[in-house]
Amino acid sequence: MRGAGVRGAGVRGARDRGQVALEYLGFIPILILVAMAGVQIGLIAYTAQQAGTAARAGARSASLQQSAAQGCQEAVSSWLADGTSCPAAYGADEVTVTATLAIPSIVPGWDFGDARKTATMPLDH
Question: Against a cut of 0.70, is the pTM above it?
Fold first, then answer.
């Protein structure tokens, strides 16, 4: 009696191992999706940080009567610099630069828009 119970458990255990492998394979796409979402959120945050840096650098350059666009381009990571736009608006005693960077997407076809930051600096007369 005792031997029959052990033998039956061994057969069931072998089948369970195959079931666990299939469950794991079914869970892999969910893990990949979560990982991609985490990377995309990181890209969005990094692009927003780079837009703020570009706006401040562009405003600093423009306040010293230099090119705001060049200041922006030099402050941004090279792989983000292509989609950078930094127009300057001059006031009586200050300059305002708005940096706009395209947010890269790791999923083709998904568009997350632009990161836009503004900085104002006094003009250096």
Answer: yes
Tokens at residue 83, please? 């989609």
Q: For residue 16, is it within any domain?
A: no
Residues 6+ apart with CB under 8 A from 39: 106
Phi, psi at 84, each rounded to 5°: -95, 135
Can you count the helices (H) and strands (E) in the chain? 2, 4
Q: What are the residue ranges of helices labelled H in 1-87?
A: 2-63, 68-75
- pLDDT tens-place values along the chain, 125 residues long: 555 555 555 555 555 667 777 788 888 999 999 999 999 999 999 999 999 999 999 999 999 999 999 999 999 999 988 878 999 999 989 999 999 999 999 988 889 999 999 999 999 87
Domain that holds residue 116: 32-122
**How many domains are there within the chain?**
1
> Angle formed by the axes of helices 2-63 and 68-75, to 10°?
150
